Amino acid sequence: MIRPEATGYGVVYFIDEMLKAANQGLKGKSVVISGSGNVAQYATEKCIDMGAKVLTLSDSSGYIYDKDGIDQEKLQHIMDIKNVKRDRISAYLNKYPNAEFHANKNPWTVKCDIAIPCATQNELKINDAKTLIKNGCKTIGEGANMPCAADAVNLFIENKILYAPGKASNAGGVAVSGLEMAQNSLKYTWSREVVDGKLKEIMSDIHTSCIKYGASKDHVNYVKGANIAGFVKVADAMLAQGVV
Predict the structure, then answer these.
(1) pTM of whole model > 0.85?
(2) pLDDT band for position 188 (cuts 50, 70, 90)
(3) How confident is the model over 191-207, as a mean pLDDT?
(4) What is the mean pLDDT of residues 134-159?
(5) CB distance 9 to 2 below 8 Å
(6) How far apart are CA 105 and CA 64, in angstroms?
(7) What is the spatial distance between Cα 96 and Cα 150, in angstroms, rounded to a whole number?
(8) Treating both helix axes as pointing N-terminal to C-terminal, what angle do 3-21 and 192-214 enclose, rounded to 10 degrees?
(9) How large is the greatest C-alpha to C-alpha distance in the chain, in angstroms?
(10) What would the mean pLDDT of 215-226 be, rounded to a whole number?
(11) Which are the contacts of 236, defined by CB distance < 8 A and separation ≥ 6?
(12) How far apart are CA 33 and CA 40, in angstroms?
């Protein structure tokens, strides 16, 4: 199973679907990620796999910026720092001294194509949103639960940024938990590759639902799409169960 990886992988799959719907692609895009736990680590891994360039990761002490990009070898070093040594992200510079560490700051001032907040609730404020937009960021995918403050979300929507709310983009973890339950009930053993394929399909289906209910002539409001899709799913379930 890929439960630890699921949320991070899922948010990148969702971002990829948004970009494809906008006739773009993930390959070659610069990405700024906050956090350095499971979600951030595996979002980084999937970005690397899909050809994007991850520039930052962070923890509560500040963020690292590697202008050359965080590759698989560097990511493994970060995983060792955070998962094994339980050290601060600044220890990254001990092995990669050409990188920068910015103490007590978040990474949203770094120019990028895509931002993926994966740290904590309300970490991305209105001024951060203004900076990202000013610097040309066109895509935001929430990896954490509600990491963008409400006024920042409104600004993204007003500026027609491709903004994926966490209720859609970080559903991968819950989705794979559901797959685990199904696998146990059916007494099946699915390989890592099979589960990853199912996760990718689920994220694509969620994206399709957001498009269905959130698309207008020249833009997709993913907040509107995700909200309506969720309400419709609950309503359909209530009707099917005879509750209403």
Answers:
(1) yes
(2) confident
(3) 95
(4) 97
(5) yes
(6) 10
(7) 36
(8) 40
(9) 63
(10) 94
(11) none
(12) 7
Question: Are the C-beta atoms of 176 and 187 separated by less than 8 Å?
Answer: no
Report pLDDT for 241: 93
Tokens of 197: 């394929």
Whether the Cβ atoms of residue 196 and residue 10 lie closer than 8 Å to each other: no
Strand order in the sheet with 114-117: 100-103, 62-65, 53-59, 30-34, 114-117, 139-141, 162-164
In one-letter notation, the amino acid at residue 220 is V
Domain 1-244 is found in CATH 3.40.50.720: yes
Q: What is the mean pLDDT of the chain?
A: 96
Residue spans of alpha helices (H) in the chain: 3-21, 38-49, 72-79, 92-95, 126-134, 150-158, 166-169, 172-186, 192-214, 222-240
CA angle 38, 134, 125 (to 5 degrees): 50
State residue 24's pLDDT score.
Answer: 96
- Residue found under tokens 């991968």: 172
